[in-house]
Amino acid sequence: MRIELEKRPRVSGLFSVVSPLLALALTLAFGALMFSLLGKDPMDALYSFFVEPLLEVWSLHELAIKAAPLILIAVGLSVCFRSNNWNIGAEGQFTMGAIAGSILPVMNPEWHSPMILPLMLVMGMIGGALYAGIPALLKTRFNTNEILTSLMLVYIAQLYLDWLTRGPWRDPQGYNFPQTKAFVTEAVLPEILASGRAHWAFIFAILAAIAVWFMMRFMLKGFEVSVLGQSERAGRFAGFSARRMVWFSMLLSGALAGLAGISEVSGSIGHLQPIISPGYGFTAIIVAFLGRLNPLGIIAAGLVLALTYLGGEAAQLSIGISDKVARVFQGLLLFFVLSCDTLIHYRIRLIFAGAKPEARG
Amino acid sequence: MKKLIIALAASAALLGGLATGASAQDKTKVCFIYVGSKTDGGWTQAHDIGRQELQKALGEKIETPFLESVPEGPDAERAIERMARSGCALIFTTSFGFMDATIKVAEKFPDIKFEHATGFKAAPNVATYNSRFYEGRYIQGQIAAKMSKKGLAGYIASFPIPEVVMGINAFELGAKSINPDFKLKVVWANTWFDPGKEADAAKALIDQGVDILTQHTDTTAPMQVAAERGILAFGQASDMIAAGPKTQLTAIVDTWGAYYIKRTNALLDGTWKSEQIWDGLKDGILTMAPYTNMPDDVKAMAEETEAKIKSGELHPFTGPINKQDGSAWLAAGEKPEDGVLLGMNFYVEGVDDKLPQ
Q: Phi-psi bin for B210: left (phi > 0), alpha (psi -120 to 50), beta?
């Protein structure tokens, strides 16, 4: 017996709306079951997961900090994915953006100028975009698979950062610990409000989401992205170039990932170190799909995912579950959301032995 | 099915509701933040055992919540701040990489006490505590020199910070006190906690011909590799005998419990002060796991050295000691100041590695 996913002829409008709620309900039910099996009060657990982090101002700031890189990267990726370019290497573009943006504060630690921060942000975007340009070049030139090339470039970027922070860029006064000198105050991304740590990366994320949403909705370029993504042939008839779209989407997503990288380093960390991301570039892929590749949906998805990180910590502290359980719960949420979404578009068909599999192209 | 789930969830909710009747308002919260998993079999597990001993000793008076697997970096700052805001009165941050985050959060919460393990930055409400691990490593070096057929040991190191360099030197000095030609190979894993990388480092060293392995990383992976390849090894931070019953010679076991109890009592008495503690074998902050898989004479030697270190008769860093390049560092009988050890950034003679600079 085989199980096949078969595309539904029509997508139910009702269920498109209901599906996230259904997924949430399923997560809550299974989460409550899991917590009670572990001997924890499920209501307490769900409360500390979803409500507690939202009750205090400082915690909302932390939510914004955690969500900002996810949203920034995912917004860029949504353009890639919509246009059928599978950039899996945002983590590498994030890292290269962070490195390129850090050149000024690390190489000129004495340079105190208000110009430094804007320059850093621009260089971060350029760094990320150039790095995403490599898989774009390889794809347009040699027809290589961008999934593989962009993914492999992640490891190169991470190892390059590792080498820099342990070698030439290491702080000579840092007791040999692998990190650069702390950035000067002028090179640190300022906080938005005095009430907490959230910095401008969150504003950048919202602005980027709105801009890309506007482009996709109202501009010819957005139409081009969708058409080429759905059918390259149709796009060609309309006079759109798939090759130029590869460049456009990769450079755009690379620049946004690079901006996320330098913002994270400048705003949250304050120096370069071998590991600057707990996998934002990969988590952002989930965020992009969780937001159904819609920039405004991505804002919500990024916030929800960030909330589960914070909630996981809160639940560890207040009811004493382990971090593994917190991650399983996060996994449950993603599983139900993505499977509910999948089942809107597809239905499951059981194929019993004997039936010959049809040839597929 | 759906009804069943609802019924299960509802009954479980009911049970759970009954169980959480007891209030925990008047207990003092003593909190811990771990870089690894509390069951890593090494560094973090040792801290968690200390936490459990603390909980047992003070029982009803305190609560000891903890966060595990917290990455060093921005996440650590948030995690520590969350602890501070959740009502912790004393917070132990148990990894070197939490240093800056601890200091930053401590500035915001002057009434909360912090204790940072193995760091060098303190504040009026931030104490530091550390253990003279090098004393145990000296004993390990002596055992290695007796047990190695080739006179060559492998050392899996984490980061080239003074703490780690000091341990490598102590091991080499111990070995050379038995076999002056003893050589030590070093691999930098560049991580505290990564079973995969640690195992790779162990394999690389064994392929280079070492027949004794020691480590300054947190997991039991190197011990397991040593056991598979049939060579001998030393455990780190926790007794790792379970990972290598025929492999482990001894282990440096971090026994933080007594320290945690002492400091928590000081907090409850109101006598807590910011101090820079650096205790050793004699204070019981580290102990040697049973000496196993070695002949009786080696065991007797190890026990004698341990007793001498405890009594103060022997300081592992006693001159004459040359630096790696052969230049003199300490004259005969000379002992270094603690500050020199804590800033150590050079190898002693006999270490077969170039210190990353």
A: beta
